[in-house]
Structures are given as C-alpha cells and as structure tokens.
Predict the 3D structure of the following.
Amino acid sequence: MKTLLFAITLSLSTLAAFADYTADFCAATNLLDARKYAQAAEAFEKALPGTTNMEARLTVLAGLMSAANLSGNLEKAVETADQVLAEPKLKGSYPADMCGLTAVRLLTKEQKFSETWKILDQVGENDTRKWSRQDTYCYFLEARGDLEIAQGHFDKAKDYYVQAAAAKGMAGYASRVQAKIDALAECAKAGEGKTLTPDETACAYLAIAEKHSTYNREGALAAYYAASAVKGVSGETKTHGELAYINIRIGEQDWGNARRLALAALQTSGATPVQKASLKKKIVSVAINGRNYPEARSYLMEILTDGTPLQTLSKDEIPYTVIGEFVQTNVSQQAERVAAMAKIGKLYLVEQNFEKAREVFTNALAMPGISDQRKAECQLYIGITYFDTKDYAKAKPEFEKVLSMKGNASPSPWDHDLLRIDYVPEREAKLRLAFIEKNPKVKKVLFLGSSNTGRGDLPGTVMRMSESAPADRVRIVSGDYEMMGTRIPTFWNLGTAPSTPRGVIKAHPWDAVVFEIPYTTCDQSTGVAEYAPRMISLIQGIKALPVIYEVHPFYGWTQKKQFGKYDNAQLAPIPANSAALAPGAYAELQIVGTNPSDQALSEFHSDKLHASEKGAYLMACCLYAALTDSSPEGLFAPTDLKKDAVELLQQAAWKSYCEKRDQFKADRTPMQ
C-alpha cells in the first residue's frame, strides 16, 4: 500500500506542468518534503479555495490527501478522498483512484466496511468501469481482497488476489499479490484438525504475520487482516494484533498512522503492562521519525518515572511483536531505563541543546546498573557536546577517556528511528580526535549507506585493514551514517539540518565520502540518475573524494537475472572523472561466474538482500582499494575466513578495481 501513497505524492510532480501554483501550495509542498505533515495538510487546505484550474485542483487535493494520511488524520484523509471522487471532471483519473484506494486501506483497518464498499463502488463504478490503466485495476482488485479477508471471507479474498496476480502489465506485481495468497493459505490451514479458541485462532494468524514480516510485508498484512476478523478475542490478543499492524506501518514509514494507532491501543482494556511499555516506545520511535522531539522526550520521561515494567516476562511468555522491539530478552529493567535516559540525551543533542544533553549523559553515567557499553556511549556523547560547540580543548580529554573504557568496541543498539547518531564509541572517539589533531597521514572517511554498509561492519573492517597496511600508506578512521533500507534519494531529501547526511558531510573536513548505489541490469527508478550527481557535487564542494560503493547483486529477489554479463545501468549517469568506484557487484560476478549455483551464491549471501561474512569482506576489499588506490592483499581479514579464501577475495577486489579505475578517475588528492 506504500505504493499508493507514493503515487499520490508522485502526482504532485507529474501534474506540475499544468498546475497554477499559489504561494500557499508551494509552502504546503515544502512542508510535505520536510515531513511536517499536519502543517502541510493545513497549508494544502488553505490553497484549495483559490485553485480553480482543474489539474491544479487535483494536485492540491492529492497533496492534502497525502499529508492528512501521513499525519494520521484519518477523518481528513477520507473526507478528502470523498471530495476527489465527487469531482465529475476528475472521475477515473489515476490520482483520484489512488486517493480513493488509500482511503479504502485506512477504512479497512478501522473495520468501517460499509464506508469502504461505498468508496470501492465509486472507484469501480459498480463493476461497470472499463479500466484504462492496468495498475489501477490491480490495486482495485487487491483492495477488494483485503476488504474480504478483513471480514473473514477467505475464499472471496483469494478470488480477488488471484485475479490481481493474473493481470498483465505490472512488473513484479504478481509476486506481491502471491505473498498475500500464500499467507491466506497458511491462515486457512492454521486451525485444521484443531478446536481453537478465538484468542488461539487470532494468535495463530499473527504468528503467520510475524513469519512474513521481515521480507514480505504484503503477506504479513493479509495475515493481520485475517486476525482482525476473529471475533471475541481478549484485550491482550487485540493489542498483539495492533502491535503487529503498527509494525507494518512503521516498516512503511507511515509515522502518522503508526502514532495514531499506538495512542489508541494504549486505551485498550486488557492490554498488559509489557504491551503498554512497547506501545509507548513505539510512540517514541514514530515521534522521533516525525521530528516531534518534545513528545518523544515526554514518553521517555514517562517510562523513566511511572514504574512501567519494561521487562517482566521470560522469552517464551513475551508476545512475538514485542521481542526484539522494545522489550529485549535478558535485558534488565534498569538497563532499559538507562537506555531511555541516553535517548533523552540524544534528543537534546539533535536539538543542539548541548548543555542539557551533557547534563543528561552525566546523570546516565551515574545510574546504577549501567553497562560498560552504555558507559562508553554516554562518555562519547559528553565529548561530542564539547566538540560540536568547537570547544576542542575540553572535548579531547573526554574522547581519550572513551579509548580506555571497557565496552567501547560495541555499537549502540539500532532502534528503528532516524536520530542516526548511534556510534561505535571507540571508532567515533578516534574519528573526532583525528579531526582535532589534523594528522595528514590519518584520513577521515564517512560511509553513507544502508544495511549493506552495516552488515559485516564495512566501515570498521576498512579501518582495520588500513591499520594493518605498510607504514607508508595512509591510515583511515571511519565515520558512518546508516539507515536501514534506504537509498540515496532519501538520504538527500532528509534536508540539511546538522543531524542529516548533508549536514554531517558539510560539518566536518572529510577526506572521502562513500555512498551506495544498487546494482541492476536495467534502468530502474532508484534515484541514482538524479541524486548521485548532486551527492558527488556536494562531496567535491568540501574538497573530499567521492567514492561510489557498488553494492553486491541481490540474490533471491532477482531470481539470478542479474547474474550473467555485467551491466550496471546505474553507473551510466555518473559524471565522467567525478568519483572513484568500489566495484562490489563486478568483483562478485568475476568470482561466481555468469551462471552461479545456489551453493556458490550462498557463500556470498546470508539472505535475499545481504552479504555473508565472505561477501562483506569482498566488499570491504573493494572499498579499501577505491579509497587508497592500493591493493588490499596481505591486509587484515576476519579470523573466520580461511587463508586461501582471503587471498582469492583480496586479489579479485584489486583486479576488479584496476579494471574499472580508468573508467572512474577522480581527483585523489584528498586521500594522498
């Protein structure tokens, strides 16, 4: 359903040539880009009365619909969809259909079935419509399937899903809908041969939703709808379901609706204390992602002061929606409170209230039960509060303390928000000291990336490789800015605030900045053509070396279609002689060949998206070569890798880099 939201937002640009934009409209779009969704909705509504051109009016309504939905204002979103569908001249247009189908998704979740059917009948013209766009027809059929399963009609839902999957003309759509068909089949079998209570039935469906949630949110959504259709469940089971659905919305970066649902779920009669703790921390997460830092602090303070039992159950007793989210197994209640205190300090740091942040981190250090890892983390942040105010004389001794502390080599836990100031304390302390000391032999490198940078700790591995290199080579200290599941357009569009990627790039004298691009053999809409040149220009503007990290092929999602003759269409838009290339995909293809077996690929991939230890080390070798223009042969390697494998990977990375070097020349002065 995220596709529908993007389609609405997309309509703002596709209709731009026809719209008579007003100042109010321009202000609204800027607010939407800044993720100030409630304010954007108000601005779009203000722009509506003065917009008479029909194309422009549709654009404003689509913007209002998108902003209202993303802010979690269900009533305004549905009201706007009704407005769009009521405009005779907009009937049957693509943006109008998307507005209607997004409203259908919202109302299906709320189990307002009569209203949902009414909108579906409007979009489908009571089954008399001749569809001009195949994608709209597919989404329409899928929405009808969702509505049927939410009412417990498994057979009818399957019929609609099968029709949607069989429709032609949408690449990849069949697999999306097949995921729902598969999950539906699993739900149908869940109670075979058993007599289950309503709670047991709903929990069985929710377990299926959990199974599908990692790589298959559409399947998870279908199983959630099945669980929501079960009548007579307890408040605890109902809250389990709400947590499952909130997870899906968070996964879709739908912060407004995730917040709305979490606030409502807190009022559910029968919700357990552990569930309420999880809901509060979800509100914290979505508040941070929505940049509502005061609300995030408020709920964190509530967690600290109201005796919320953050950890009271054994692993077997904790609902699956809680494990790994906010109530971690084998983590003491006091450790969770320390984490909450540290998060409050980070929020003050992001808001550049350095004195208050320093006070909070100092208090956290004094809390009983604080772990060595948290101590090193809080000590690092104390140093940063001085560093970011350019008080380097006070910052330096604070960073030096970090280097001698236990637990300084462990990264901060990733907690699903966009604060993005979580560090490996030892590494970050070394980086900040390098900025202060200005040793020309020590090069500061920022790694900007997703889980493909984080898996295998590529920044740390490259840093250790440089430390093991001959004395005449440069040493690298790594900084990293990682956001899971994120590509270059999102990094760029976060803006220029100090805590954003662009803000971090411009704030420090980096010698090189690494950013990811995907490997695909076709010109997919990845944003590289538009945003990579912008990123390269920004990096060159601070006199640093831009380095493109070409991520390994995604095994599994591509059914091996990308394995064959090397052809990365994403590299075509890169300006000549502007950046160095770390050819990760190219190097892997040189090893596995044009028709690799599953066994060969499994050596380089841990799952459908991510590299194994062996694959990650190959990527690190490519990055080291691109950063230093030197061979990685003979340098540090993880001890788990055998010597012959290490030599193969190092040689393949160097050979691949050399073969691509002339094609991707760049001014290497910053790294010399």
Remarks:
- The beta strands are 442-449, 475-482, 512-517, 545-550, 580-583.
- The two ends are 48 Å apart (CA to CA).
